[in-house]
Write a structure and sequence with these properties.
heterodimer, A: 297 residues, alpha/beta, Rossmann fold, 2 domains, 10 helices, 32% helix, B: 177 residues, mainly alpha, 76% helix, elongated
C-alpha cells in the first residue's frame, strides 16, 4: 500500500491556513506526525479520513482518489479521532457489532468472533455488556481503538490515541498497532516524541500547517549526534545563553535547570556533550516557529 | 445499509425511557377521555361514536406534534450531541441509507406512540362500563374500522407531516457536510 499526499492546502473561512502545500508519501508501517497544538495535524488527518475537503491538492491511496471516491476509501479506513463520544445507552459489544455490520461483515458468526477478539485486544472483554455511557475516559478510548480496527482496514489513522491511557494500556495498544502496521499504513499523531522514535519508521514534523521535516527517526537523530550540548545553569539568566547559543530546550532535573543547545562545534562555556534524541530534532525543527518550552518568557 | 441503520435506530429507541412514557401518557389520557361520561348536552351520542373518535384522535395529534419533534430531532442530532459523528461518518454508509434508516426507524416509534390512541379508545369505554361511569346505552357497538380509519386517515398523516418537518429541520440546519 502507498498513500501519496500531494500539495494539500486548506484555509478555513476565518482565514486560518491550516495546511500549506503538504506533501509526503507513506508506505506500509507506522508513520508518525509530530507537531505542536494547532499545527494542522488534525486537519490533515480529518482530510485523509474524508471528513473534510481540502482547497487544493490530492490524496491517493494505491490509485484511489481519496478526495473524490470517499465511500471506497471509507471501506479501507479505520479512524480514531482525537475527540469523540459514544451513544450512552448502547453496550460496547452491541456498538462494535453495529459498526461491523456497517462495514459489511454480514456473516453473524464471523462478526461475533471479530468483536470478541477486538474486545480482548483492547482489554474490554469484562466490560462488554456495560453501557458505553458508564465508561471511564480510558475505557472509552480503548473502545475507540477497537472500532477503528474493525473490518481489516488498510489505512488506519489514529489521532492522539493514547490520551487518557495508563502506561500499561499504552504499551498494549502500541504493540497491537505495530503488529497491524506490518501490512497496513498506520498514521499516528502524537505529542509524545518518544513514541515516534520507538514505533515509527517514518515521521513528519508539522508546524503552522507546513511539513518542516520528513524522514526516519534514526537518521534524524544521527544528523544531530555530536552536536548537542547540555549544561546545568542553575539560577543564571537563560537569556544570556539564548543570545550566544541555539537553545533547543530546558529541563528541570531534581529542581535544577538544565539547558540543551545545538552547536556544530564544541561551544566551551562549561557545556558538556549530550546524547542526541528525537526530542532535540523536534525542538530544533520547530524552534524557529514556536516558543519552545517557554524559552522566550 | 438501510436495514442495519433502521434496525439500530429501533434498538436505540427501545432503550429510551421517554418512548414508553410518551406512549403511556397518551394511552392513559385517551382511556380516561373515553371512560368518563360525556358532558351534559352531548349525552344523546355514543361516547365512542366514529365522529367522536375521529375528533379525539385529531385533537391528540396536535399535542403529539411535540412528541414527533422530540423523537425525530434526536434521531439525527444524537450524533452531534454525543460527538459520535467524528467517526460514524467515516464508515462506508450511504447518504440515503443513513437518512432513511434514521428517519423511518424514528417515525416508526412516532407512529407506535400515535397508536396509543387506538388502545385508549378501546380500553376507555370498557373501563367506563366496568366502573359504572358509563351506562351501556352510551357505548356504541365496537367496529375496528371506527378506530383504524381515523388512525390511518388523520393520525398517521398528521404525524408524518410534523415528523418530516422536524427531521428536515435538523438535517438541514445541522448538516456537517
Amino acid at each position: 500500500m502507498q498513500l501519496i499526499i500531494n500539495s494539500l492546502s486548506k484555509t478555513y473561512p476565518n482565514g486560518v491556513r491550516a495546511l500549506k502545500n503538504v506533501s509526503f508519501v507513506c508506505q506500509n508501517g507506522m508513520f508518525g506526525l509530530l507537531g505542536p497544538n494547532g499545527a494542522g495535524k488534525s486537519t490533515l488527518m480529518r482530510t485523509i479520513a474524508t471528513l473534510q475537503d481540502a482547497d487544493q491538492g490530492s490524496i491517493n491511496l494505491d490509485g484511489l482518489n481519496v478526495l473524490k471516491e470517499k465511500t471506497a476509501l471509507r471501506r479501507l479506513l479505520g479512524y480514531l479521532p482525537q475527540e469523540f463520544g459514544v451513544y450512552p445507552r448502547i453496550t460496547a459489544e452491541e456498538m462494535l457489532d453495529h459498526i461491523a455490520r456497517l462495514k459489511g461483515l454480514n456473516d453473524a458468526a464471523k462478526r461475533r468472533e471479530l468483536v470478541a477478539t477486538l474486545l480482548e485486544h483492547v482489554n474490554l472483554t469484562r466490560d462488554k455488556k456495560k453501557r458505553l455511557g458508564g465508561f471511564s475516559g480510558g475505557m472509552k478510548q480503548r473502545f475507540g481503538i477497537a472500532q477503528a480496527l474493525i473490518g481489516e482496514p488498510k489505512l488506519i489513522i489514529v489521532d492522539e490515541p493514547t490520551a487518557g491511557l495508563d502506561p500499561a494500556e499504552r504499551n498494549r495498544f502500541y504493540n497491537l498497532l505495530s503488529r497491524i502496521g506490518e501490512n497496513t499504513i498506520v498514521i499516528l499523531s502524537t505529542h509524545i516524541v518518544e513514541d515516534v522514535s520507538t514505533l515509527c519508521s517514518q515521521f513528519a514534523i508539522i508546524c503552522d500547517g507546513e511539513v518542516m521535516y520528513l524522514g526516519g527517526p534514526d537518521a534524524a537523530v544521527m544528523e544531530l549526534t555530536g552536536k548537542i550540548y547540555t549544561k546545568l545553569i542553575g539560577g543564571e539568566s537563560l537569556s544570556r545563553y539564548k543570545e550566544r547559543h541555539q537553545v533547543l530546550s530546558t529541563h528541570l532535573k531534581s529542581g535544577n535547570l538544565y539547558i540543551r543547545i545545538f552547536s556544530e562545534t564544541a561551544p566551551g562555556d562549561g557545556f558538556i556533550p549530550g546524547y542526541a534524541s528525537l526530542e532535540d530534532v523536534y525542538f530544533k525543527v520547530i524552534g524557529g516557529q514556536a516558543d519552545v518550552a517557554g524559552i522566550n518568557s | 445499509m438501510f436495514s442495519e441503520i433502521f434496525r439500530f435506530e429501533i434498538k436505540y429507541r427501545l432503550r429510551k425511557l421517554d418512548t414508553y412514557l410518551f406512549f403511556l401518557f397518551f394511552f392513559l389520557a385517551i382511556t380516561i377521555g373515553f371512560a368518563l361520561s360525556p358532558p351534559a348536552g352531548t349525552r344523546n351520542t355514543f361516547v365512542n361514536s366514529p365522529a367522536i373518535i375521529a375528533d379525539m384522535f385529531v385533537g391528540c395529534t396536535t399535542i403529539m406534534m411535540l412528541v414527533s419533534g422530540v423523537i425525530m430531532s434526536s434521531s439525527l442530532y444524537r450524533d452531534i450531541e454525543f460527538n459520535v459523528y467524528e467517526y460514524y461518518l467515516t464508515f462506508p454508509i450511504s447518504r440515503n441509507g443513513y437518512f432513511w434508516g434514521r428517519f423511518l426507524g424514528s417515525f416508526l416509534f412516532v407512529a407506535i406512540i400515535g397508536s396509543s390512541v387506538i388502545w385508549g379508545a378501546l380500553a376507555g369505554p370498557f373501563i367506563g362500563l366496568r366502573l359504572g361511569w358509563l351506562s351501556p346505552n352510551m357505548v356504541a357497538p365496537f367496529h375496528w374500522v371506527n378506530l383504524l380509519q381515523p388512525f390511518f386517515c388523520y393520525v398517521v398523516p398528521n404525524l408524518f407531516l410534523t415528523s418530516a418537518i422536524f427531521f428536515g429541520l435538523i438535517a438541514y440546519t445541522r448538516n456537517t457536510g
